[in-house]
Design brief:
It is a single chain. The chain is built from 12 helices and 10 strands.
Length: about 325
């Protein structure tokens, strides 16, 4: 497992991390024992980055992570949580008082005095552009409430605005073979500024798992059922905003281009982690097998793996241009 600098923090994190939205049971039920098994399997494979949020299961994901890490002294895990979606997405709610309340709750959930990294959770553009936002975050760093801060964003313009801020540690943005726009400006700007990039939704909500078909169904409480067209939150969070059937066809073409023994999810994760400027990809996992397979994709980054990531990149760009470009919202 490769480890890479987390911005200017002095920490290093694994090139493949673990996203834990699903451990909050927002992708269907996951019991606590299974959730802890996923965390353990990831750590066994060298994962040192867990990404969570205070709204994943209304704090359930944070609490499970906190309990797990309490049982693993000297674990070396960096926990990146997020805040800002416990109230309406209105700029007035992003106040120093609410930042304090939200981070205090996350500290209790995770069982720590200082949060490793806190990211604003896809806030309005006005919040990302406001000086007062960063003044409030700097105050939390100064008093030891948080160790560092970043911003999770929806659009490339938001990412560039956050990268321009001198104390931003990381930006989290959707990057996968179905979402290429960040490669044009965002990743080069982040690399130049020394800002880490977490590539979220790296498997396009499972479309790049190679397992789904036109007849696959999802539980009613799974966002892949109720948010395909942005009914509950930004459409880009579900299947990267791609039409499901179009995505299935595109995934099939990507899979057909792979050498024997290389799976589509492993290739997609290795491709994302190999893009210049990406610090870590953060796939989710609901089972030990998924967690293990995701982490083991790091082997494809090594010389002699038999996987030509740049040849795969050529296929990715061809499929994107032929099948997906018209389907992707221009703001993304």
């Amino acid at each position: 497992m490769q480890h890479r600098p987390l911005g200017r923090t002095g920490r290093a994190v694994s090139a493949i991390g673990l996203g834990t939205w699903q451990l909050g049971a927002d992708w269907g039920a996951v019991d606590e024992a299974d959730a802890r098994a996923v965390l353990a399997a990831s750590v066994e494979q060298g994962v040192t980055l867990f990404d969570t949020a205070d709204v994943y299961g209304d704090g359930r994901s944070e609490t499970i992570i906190g309990g797990f890490l309490a049982d693993c002294p000297g674990h070396g895990i960096t926990v990146a949580t997020k805040m800002g979606r416990r109230m309406a997405q209105e700029p007035a709610n992003y106040s120093p008082e609410n930042f304090r309340a939200w981070t205090d709750r996350s500290r209790r959930n995770l069982g720590v005095d200082t949060l490793d990294l806190v990211q604003l959770h896809c806030p309005p553009t006005e919040v990302i552009e406001a000086d007062a936002t960063y003044d409030a975050l700097d105050a939390l760093v100064a008093d030891g409430t948080i160790g560092a801060y970043g911003v999770s964003v929806e659009t490339c313009a938001q990412a560039l605005a956050a990268i321009a801020r001198p104390h931003v540690t990381n930006v989290q943005i959707i990057v996968n073979p179905f979402r290429l726009k960040p490669l044009d400006e965002v990743l080069p700007a982040a690399a130049e500024a020394g800002v880490a990039i977490f590539a979220r939704v790296p498997l396009a909500s499972g479309l790049l798992s190679g397992k789904y078909t036109a007849t696959t169904t999802f539980a009613g409480d799974d966002h892949r059922s109720f948010n395909r067209h942005g009914e509950a939150f930004d459409r880009g969070e579900t299947f990267s905003g791609v039409d499901y059937e179009t995505g299935l066809a595109a995934a099939a073409q990507l899979a057909a281009a792979l050498p024997e023994g290389v799976s589509l999810p492993a290739a997609s994760l290795a491709w994302g982690a190999s893009r210049r400027g990406v610090t870590a990809v953060i796939p989710g996992a609901r089972t030990v097998a998924q967690a293990t397979g995701n982490a083991q994709a790091a082997a494809l980054l090594e010389p002699g793996s038999g996987f030509d990531v740049e040849a795969f990149d050529t296929v990715v760009r061809d499929v994107y241009d032929r099948m997906l470009r018209a389907d992707i919202h221009p703001l993304w």
